Structures
1.
Amino acid sequence: MRRRIAQLWRTLSVTGVLVGTLFFAASLTPSLVPRPFAMQGVLSGFSLAAGYTVGVFGRWLWSYLGLPLPRGRVDLWIKLVASAACTVIVIVFLREASGWQDSVRELMEMPPVEGTRPFSVGLIALGVFMALLGFARLFRLTSQWFAQRFGRIVPPHVSQVVAVAAAVALFWSLIDGVLYRFALQSADSSFQQLDALIEDELDAPQRAELAGSGASLIDWEGLGRQGRRHVSSGPTAGEITEFHGAPALQPIRVYVGLNSADSVEARAQLALAELQRSGAFERSVLVIVTPTGTGWVDPAAMDPVEYLHRGDIASVAVQYSYLPSWLSLLSQSGYGAETARAVFHAVYDHWRALPRDDRPRLYLHGLSLGALNSERSADIYDVVGDPYHGALWSGPPFRSETWRWITSSRNRGSPAWLPEFRDGSVIRFMNQHGMPSRPGQRWGPLRIVYLQYASDPITFFEPGALWREPEWMQAPRGPDVSPRLRWFPIVTMLQLGADIAAGAPAPVGYGHDYAAEHYIDAWIEVTDPRDWTAGDTARLKLKFDHRTGREALYE
């Protein structure tokens, strides 16, 4: 065993190990959300491998340029000094890791971390690094094998280039065409089975106006797991009446699952037919909701708006996937846009044909991947003659072209994490602390609000962080972003990618977990509920305050 370890050490690049250690150390610094130790270990392993690659490339470039390289005893002493330096760096940074994580947790009102488990982090990181190193060496052997074959018929330099290209093509076809598709199909199958699960505590609704009831055009089983949860939850007319002290209506919730019809168009038309059957177009407010990847509709968003409008509201959502949003976002960013467009046009075309004075106000809503697809559902040029009334998009993903353009075109002096756009008459941004206000600022006929937290990695992940510091890291920073966060080439992008996968540990009101009390402010801005007072807002926020535990809104 010792002989093998010694042999492995001799084959490693000293420059690669040293640069890799620096990358490993940088990966322990804070990013947007707290990281569990296992995720930290994986992140550190990838960072170590990335740094090692940079170091190996640097040494190769040095040699290629004909610059002198250390040999003999000098090379041995350099290895010994580098080993000692790497050991010291690892120990020091692992000791500091808990303080860095606490700098994030403190801003999010979380208790201090009990320990970062440095030994476990180091072992996981080493395992990940060794696996990636083995993969790289397998690639090199494959390339050399191709080079030997091609070298018989073409010049040596040409054979090496062709061999690398052939190895890349082979590995890419295996990863993308076999492993990736197998993993995606397995995930889709697993989530499909979960979606079909009918939970014992959920019974088909008895009220005729609800989707999945005996009078509904949509079967209870066809709603799927998320659809059954959605239509079975939410405030009742009695609860809304009790809150307002005046008679209220039962909110209408229409949901169409993937199994409710065989095609996108069929599901969109089924949603429209169910809206007509349930009397949704006779309500004062109608919301087209684009769900997340799994089909989930956030109750923290929908429950409060039904209180705001005294139950005189209807909503419709159509499922387009079984996969979680982050998986769909990283693999197929356009996933669900076709469904969102079909649903919007089916509902909008019918709504537009109704008399202007006898139709509900029409709004759009989406969270995460739902926000991205909701944005894509309506082309402004198709509705400019008779626009819908507004939209609330929360946690907009970084791949949203509209969001990125608006953010980059923000007014000078406003931060990237809370932009101000032109005169604010059409588009405004808000976070946990509300939205910036300017004297004389007024809404126009179309109101669009982006609700986003500065600590949301789904929103603020940036591929360009590979080589440049993101604008949202510049001062002043968001109130929930650690002042100890620093930008490092390559490492910061890996940290943000890990944040997307580790976003769940962030508490409600931070990261990608949006709180009902913040939705309340956003919906008030977008829908301007009638006869609503500041006192009503305070009472509703108290009811939905996630810290009181009085409403089980989040899963």
2.
Amino acid sequence: MDIINILPDSVANQIAAGEVVDRPAGAVKEMLENSMDAGATQIDLVVKDAGRTLIQVIDNGSGMSDSDARLCFERHATSKIHKADDLFAIHTMGFRGEALASIAAIAQVELRTRQHDSELGTQVTIEGSHIVDQQPTVCPAGTSLSVKNLFFNIPARRNFLKKDSVEFSHIEEVFRRVTLIHYDLGFTLTSNGKLVYDLKAGTLLQRIAGLYGNAYKERMFSVEEQTDLVKIRGFVSRPEFSRSRRGEQYLFVNGRYIKHPGLSTAVERAYGDLLPERSYPSYFIGLTVDPSKIDINIHPTKTEVKFVDEHALFAILRSAVKRALGQFSLATELSFDTPEEFNLPPAPKDYVPSQPRISYNPNYNPFRASGSQTHMKLEKPEKLDNIDNPDNLDILEPLAKPEKPAATTGSCLQVQGRYIVTPLASGLAVIDQHRAHERILYDKLSTLNSQLSTPNSQTLLFPVNCTFSAADAEMLGELLPDIKQYGFELSPLNQTTFVITATPADLKEDDLQALLEKLLCDYKGSTMQKYNNRSESLCASLARQMAVRAGTPLSQEQMQQLVADLFACPLAEVSPSGKKIITIVKPEELLK
């Protein structure tokens, strides 16, 4: 008995749709790419209900003839591939000929298109792969493709979609990936009747600013390199504007967004020690490579690629980014205008300067206990860098129970600008100052939020305006009640700008724009992960941003206050993110 059957086209198209259009964002990607391949200079994206109800893409491209308007919905129908060799010389975005067939198999589709030299256009209506109607119509030159009721005939797939905010975030990400590298085209994105982005054709830096805010113009270093193998152009962020998660990291090859762990590592390694701990740079880098040297046909979404010579690309990209960081960071520190305060009067005639002298006590020992002749020596302090890895530092043991500092001494010592060393009855406590302050602030902010008490705020002498991307501005607007609970006073000035008039009393950060951006970045990364609700997420993020940084010198009074406040916390051993704060060095280990 025969058991092998040929699948009907409608079923085969639904299977293909599962690979190409797994959610509304997948349809958006294919539709935008088709418009770009049609030579459009202006592309408008309209969505309703995060793409469930409607996804519409309108372009001013070349348009299609009557026969092409119908044929484009057939499976494996494409204008970009004619023979197998064409796969190794691809210069277009879509090329498989599955996109429109897959979309038409799972939605109600209306296509209106007209070529520029034609008086009339064509309208095609399709439901579930079946052509319902085709007739002449009056429409602008170009193409308008409307996809309605996505997955209307596959209820199981529709039930797997997330809530609208999540699905729209995926659409936004696809929109950014497409528009960032095609900065020479104009784009708009409208959601539920509200204009979210209006991007004019311009430069890459202008496009970055259009998507993420004008503040990014001052945060980027230009990267340029050209060799026989690759041409590199793009921007990387200044080290001080790094993020706590890998979000704004975009690599493009021949105008196509890609994911490549090796090249991403090359960019991050170029920063070396310039990045703070657990921080990641932002970058927007485009590579131009001979199409015959890459293979992009290894994944349905075409985001994964293979290169003929990946090792050489890694080295070239790393070198280009490293040189850009070195050149621009040096240029920002050099000034050829002599400040007035350094215009010193000329020295008198025959003046001989004397050598400066420094007074110090050669017998001073910071580890000598007060009133005792016992000398304790801490050798190889550089090992303190391994405080997070006790296996590499066998003299350090985790603190089982918080122990208060010895009341008789109180002498604190700062090591490497990162650790505070203070004596305990059981030895020396080595405290990570940033994590300790983070714990203190988190407990303080949590108590403030739980008791719904009035926060301590400091009014700014001059209000500060902060501009964000449309998506971040909308999110910040939703979070305003929670943020105000911690001492911020801010209100929307327009669709993307907020004015700040007051900040928490403990806040020492001057760059409020960067602080709020990191707050939003942390919130987007942690909302569905560690914390139970958005108040906890914001509290943890704000404590992390406000905490004293590693490398910040502290006075004796500041260190003593920090240690006292830490040991007053119920959970003094670990930071809110679960990192160890304190390690004890026992006296017998010091005596060795």
3.
Amino acid sequence: MRCPRFARPARLSAVCTLVAVSFAATPAAHASEDGPAVPVIVEASSVAAATAAVDGVGGTVDLALPVVAGVAAHVPAGRLAALDAEPTVRVLQDATLHPTGGSFGPSPADRTSAPDPKHDDTKHDGSGHDTPPPAVDPQLAALHLSGDWSPAAGRGTAVALVDTGVSATPDLQGSRLVRGPDLSGEGDGVDHYGHGTFMAGLIAGDGTASAGTGTPHYGVAPAATVVSVKVAGADGSTTVSRVIAGIGWVIANRDTYGIGVLNLSFGVDAPMPYRFNPLSAAVEAAWASGITVVVSAGNDGDGHVTSPGSDPYVVTVGAIDNAGTAQTADDVVPAWSGRDRFRHYSKPEVVASGVSVISLRAPGSTVDVTHPEGRVGDVYFRGSGTSMSTALVSGVAALLLAHHPAATPDDVKGALVDGGADVRRSAPEVDADRADHADARPDWWQHYRVAFDGLDRGLDDGMPWTSTRWTSTRWTAIRWTSTRWTSTRWTEAEWTATRWSSTSWDSTRWTSTRWTAEAWPSQGWG
């Protein structure tokens, strides 16, 4: 049967079926007298309790999910009703997330970057000689980086990237690329699909391969560290459970790698309110742990924002077509960029460049082989979508944390929104310099009902920031509670159960709308 949208039944007689999910994709799937094994997420009071429930019906546990006190498992279809009948257990079919491509017409004629008269991007070094900042391409110029921006920007910050892995490239060398776990099954951490490498370049590419060209292709925070958590292989597909596991790993290792930002450039249609959504529970746990979570709005157009971007706490990013200029007067929102108004909030909160964006290529990857017309030289590639916008904003978040290391995720979000530039019929467009100098306000502290119960500490309508002492130069409203949520050795017992409806997920896509060969003028890109 198909669960009704936004339904949260008290008890289902069986797990709802998911359209177009392949159950043969994993070796754990097998037939038995109770039918084929079905991939599910089982949530209980702890990982141990969920494991016991799966064992009790003859299922096989594939992956522990302590962040939601559950497991990913395969359970014989004929035993699902018995599992779901357990009073302390909830069951959700573990959906396969598929990459999809939605094409749209050619972008408008691209123009050379022009200075924005509202901004002075000159660096004043106090010597009486004004020196311009390093040359940047139009997609960075449109973010209005501070006048003191340089290739050293972002040093000391780390951005976690839960995606398709990252390939070796000159622009991400040495210790600035940390390879976390590979949950895809391929086991090498390398990007065989081509999406994660592109995102990593937008966040922290250092322009090595384009040095000397006049306008190098920098990431927003070229000195930041990228912590790659691979959840998808060469076909680009993953599962809800792998993504949740990846987010959990990031939370557990926040202090080890100094992770301040989590980039999630994907989306799924979730047919339940965010409070009963396991992806929302996972991203809110990251948020409460002090990690600014930046998520794409999706590419389904007006009236649609995918999960976990639909969660009210996270920074959700839509796309803007900047027409190849730094000014905002000619910027428009592409029809495909996701946006929606929920009961108490609207999404996305901000927008950034998402049309004909250039970043790192993953040679030999699925996207590279399938779309050779997207190649820009030997190292770079071009694509469009809210994925790209999201990665750019993650880079800006890293810059803000480099300047305001005590900031909470609520602070970073408030600064991005308050510092944004007005765009007609759009959320504010990210302006990095204005965000960096935004006046901190107490109402940056968000108060929404949470999708998880805060380690059973009574957290319900806000995050654990406890002080309201603000200053204009540093965002210091953020005296943390005495209990840190980011222990590097938390276990399933520390995370209480998070409830969601036993319902179905629609198919999911990495939110890259297209990979295109349409070129910017050579004088604009170098």
4.
Amino acid sequence: MTYDRFRNYFAILLGVWTGFIHIGQFTFFPMESIRFYAWHLMLGLTFVFLYKPSAQNGSKKWLVLDWFLIALSLSVGISVIANYDNFIVIMQNSRPDFFYEIMGIIIALLVLEAARRAIGWILPLISLTTVFYALFGGDLPGLLGHRGYSVMRVVLTIFSDQGVYGTPIAVSASNIYLFLLFAAFLNVLGADRIFQNIAIAFTGKKRGGPAKMAVLASCMFGTISGSVVANVMSTGSFTIPLMKRMGYAKRFAGAVESVASTGGQIMPPIMGAAAFVLSDIAGVPYAIVCLAALLPALMYYVTLFKMVDLESVKYNLKGLPPEDIPQLKTELKRSFKLSVPLGVLLFTLLVLKMTPMMSVIYSLLALTVCGIIAKDNRLSISKFLQGFQMAGRTLPQVVAACACSGIVTAMFAITGLGLKFSNFIVQLGGNSILLSLILAMLICIILGMGLPTTAAYIICATAIAPALVKIGIAPLPAHLFLLYFASISAITPPVAVASYAAAGIAGENAMKIGLTAVKLGIAGFALPFTFVLNSDYLHFGFDFLTLSTWLSSFTICYSAAIIIQGYTEQKITTFEQLLYAIVIITAIHSSYILSAAGWILFALLFWGGKYIRSKTSAAHIG
């Protein structure tokens, strides 16, 4: 048996066992929380060292090191699981214990190495900086100084429910893995291709159809995948070449896919992994987070969709030929096996108010039944096993980011660094909400340039969220603000991971794509300020406030796209652009009267201008 085949069999067995442990935790055999987190971290680290080998070029000489690290991961995890009662006593009492001190050092090194392999150097270096601060910060003068902590205290804090078994890994174990498993089974049943075909069927005939298809397909794919790069690579491999072939510039094609894929992290019902962490840290049920995030996410995509539409007007770009467009009826029939489980997820989560864990377990059950009875691409045993294996393959980045972030939050907790950082922002902002928000935005974007969204959000939530709450911002909008900018950093140069991924497919310079993406994704930069300063945009209910806010939001989205592109059905004047800016200023206001004035002005400008131009064109023809 070759090594690759052995690794594949091992990964399948490991994936099935991982699924068994996580589903069992919330159904048939629940276990103590820390013991469950120990299982999750142990299995996650094993997947990291299995799928992120020392030698990325396929060399076999480093395999001994990889399996040694797997053995260490299993040893530490089993020592906690098997000696759980003793571990809890030591963790709660911070009692010196040489064995667990060694285990703590080993797990810290394993987590740092796993993070380095899975997400790069930046987060491990941040973690090490906070560890050194905890060890030696007692010698620092002034505000940065603290009482000083021994190696044993630092190690035991890391090896506890404040550190690697703390909130980040708890959320990964309780919520994120099950949604990754759900997404994996959707993909095994062809969700990516079905969503793509539905997007083509809906938008292919329209002007600029390929770009609109990219927006819709990436949005749909993003609801089941929180990974920006995975979204770009899966949908972009088809949409970017198609956009180029239909006449879009390479930089624009890459930017559209980058912005559309980035939005997947903020698009309910299955937002990115960071949304689950947000729910836990902010103390807000995940269903409430989804409902609050719905309108801003739709505004993000509506603005992008309209900008793409106006780009096609600007360059007279047509839709796809009829022979390239799938039949919508056929694709909707094929999507039945996917839409039913997604419907079960929404119903159990939003109507029955079940926990996210139970909702996704029922959705997995529905998906399995629908997959078995489907007429095409049925869920066979091999695909069933492939689903567990695929979930394990997507787990390394999440586990590595969450566990390594746990080290940072642990050091923030014992040294008070997070509180000091928060106080610094409050003082620098001078209790000005706008200035504090700008500072928070810059920090999130800078951190997010080199970190996955989840890790960037966790650090920002620990260090910045208390400052925003302290100056009077409610917890949910404060945390959503940080989540948005941790997400939008994926398209912000100079290190824009979505733009770099799209650049490889588009054959264009990543910086050019990144700069174009910032223009197309302008809504992502403005929306967080909007819903913090006017919380009506996070309100969802069957009332006049919701209706008014939604009318205002789409008026604002269309106006913003028109201002940036300088077109409606043809080029508009600078004066008209200024009038559309007035529309935004009035419609965005919480006053019903001003909002209504904005709607009326928009109607006069958009439909009135359209009518006048049609009359003018008719007169010229006559």
